[in-house]
Design goal:
- The chain is mainly alpha-helical.
- Helices cover about 85% and strands about 0% of the residues.
- The relative contact order is 0.11.
């Protein structure tokens, strides 16, 4: 558990520094400098590239997570594992580019009327697919080498910093819009180059072929995991991005832009889970190999508890300041108010489920997890088709919250009956009471005219009340221990 805590803390620090930069960029500058159409364009470029890149990986990231433990041997360059990963990725990239050109007429026909700007910049999706694909391959490779922080730093912090510089240059007319898009795409691609160089310097980047461990049994396992991995990874990316694509198709790129900006505020709640999930995957995979069910249950329990603590604070902090958020955003983003609420609820549900995805996928029931993901994809698409025509972008957010609730209930029931894993106890009632009381007090506070001061004071009071409850009632041993370590350090 020590390596999980250490890397989760480091990763969370980088993630929140990235959130701060992302807030300046996405929350303040993008809405003021770019039109809603231009914001929609950026969201669509990312959404399409992520979806295509996940299919291009051919599910090999799942192989890395689940089976790298059998290849692990630094002296033998991990038996050529990275070479195998690259060959699969290159093959997948070629296949997906062919698919891209075959699907291009359909993409254009769905976008030409309401999203002409996206059609104009459609080809930028190709380099984004390539670099997104290989970053995910190398980041997963780093993860199973027990270094989940490097990828987090590059993707969550450095990339956002480069995007911030790009939009500042555009604001001061040092770049026109065409060159801004080039700079934006470059900022997303650059982390792939840097992570490659980092692996080379650490002598972990070996493309020497070695097929000594590719027995018939191992090859069958890799193919099986890859097939189900394609379904899982593509389902996961579809879940995160299909709403933007459907909004663009059904009600236009401008509404996609409003959704993209307000969606950002709702997903801030998920930030603490990213580093924890990445490093936990490698540890849980090794624990399943050793059949250490006690360790897995412990990680599952603590991930659910600690993630809910952070998620609860972030959710009430955001929603108590919702009026202040829309003083930051231009008036045209007002329709996205309840997008923040429902995406926040969706994020809260995901955080409360801890590392349940990883526990199921790394078990012998990994195929079952694939079926669960397919159920979620069907739910997301169906509920979007029902809710978007009725409620617009808020309907897409409602669809996300409802679908994630059903999905996580299914996972909870499965883990309970198969492994007797049940993370919820009386401590969760304390979290709910702390969150409710903190929100009520924050909501009832009189408004300060200067919204910056209002955010600071309102948030500080909410955090003080909430954190006091958590510490006094000793909800989390890890957080209490860390608090008193910091307190002793400051005292010295």
């Amino acid at each position: 558990m020590g390596i999980i805590q250490k890397q989760a803390i480091k990763g969370t620090i980088y993630s929140y520094l990235g959130v701060l930069i992302g807030f300046i960029t996405t929350g303040i500058l993008f809405p003021r400098i770019l039109t809603t159409d231009e914001n929609g364009l950026l969201k669509l470029l990312i959404s399409y590239s992520l979806i295509f890149a996940q299919f291009a990986s051919l599910g090999f990231n799942s192989v890395t997570t689940r089976l790298f433990t059998y290849f692990r041997d630094h002296k033998k360059s991990h038996h050529g594992f990275l070479f195998i990963a690259f060959m699969v990725a290159f093959g997948g990239f070629i296949i997906i580019i062919i698919a891209f050109f075959l699907l291009k007429p359909i993409i254009i026909s769905n976008s030409i009327d309401k999203s002409a700007l996206f059609v104009e910049y459609l080809y930028y999706v190709i380099p984004l697919i390539f670099f997104t694909l290989f970053f995910s391959i190398l980041d997963n490779y780093y993860k199973v080498l027990y270094n989940a922080v490097r990828g987090t730093f590059l993707k969550e912090f450095l990339q956002r910093l480069l995007i911030l510089f790009s939009v500042i240059l555009y604001y001061f007319n040092l770049l026109n819009f065409n060159f801004f898009i080039i700079a934006y795409v470059t900022a997303i691609c650059l982390p792939t180059i840097i992570i490659s160089i980092s692996l080379i310097f650490e002598k972990q980047f070996s493309l020497k072929p070695d097929f000594s461990l590719l027995s018939k049994e191992m090859s069958r396992s890799m193919i099986s995991v890859s097939v189900y991995g394609i379904l899982i990874s593509s389902s996961g990316i579809l879940i995160l991005n299909i709403d933007s694509i459907m909004i663009n198709s059904m009600i236009g790129i401008s509404q996609t832009g409003i959704y993209a900006i307000t969606f950002f505020f709702g997903t801030i709640i998920l930030i603490p889970s990213r580093s924890l999930t990445k490093i936990s995957a490698a540890v849980i995979a090794d624990a399943w190999k050793e059949k250490n069910l006690i360790l897995i249950k412990d990680i599952y329990y603590k991930s659910c508890l600690n993630q809910l603590i952070f998620a609860g604070l972030l959710f009430i902090g955001i929603w108590a300041n919702i009026n202040n958020i829309f003083k930051i955003l231009p008036p045209e983003y007002e329709p996205g108010k309840y997008v923040i609420f429902f995406i926040g609820i969706s994020s809260l549900i995901q955080m409360a489920s801890g590392v349940s995805n990883i526990v199921i996928f790394n078990s012998k029931y990994y195929k079952v997890h694939t079926y669960f993901m397919l159920i979620l994809v069907v739910l997301i698409i169906t509920t979007n088709l029902i809710f978007i025509p009725k409620y617009g972008i808020v309907g897409a957010a409602m669809a996300s919250a409802l679908s994630n609730l059903v999905f996580n209930l299914i996972k909870f029931i499965f883990l309970y009956f198969k492994f007797k894993m049940q993370p919820f106890d009386r401590k969760y009632f304390i979290i709910i009471i702390a969150a409710g009381l903190s929100y009520i007090i924050g909501y009832l506070m009189p408004e300060i005219k200067n919204y910056i001061f209002d955010i600071i004071i309102r948030s500080a009071i909410i955090a003080l009340i909430y954190c006091s409850f958590i510490l006094i009632f000793k909800v989390s041993d890890e957080l209490n221990q860390k608090f008193f370590q910091i307190f002793k350090f400051i005292k010295k």
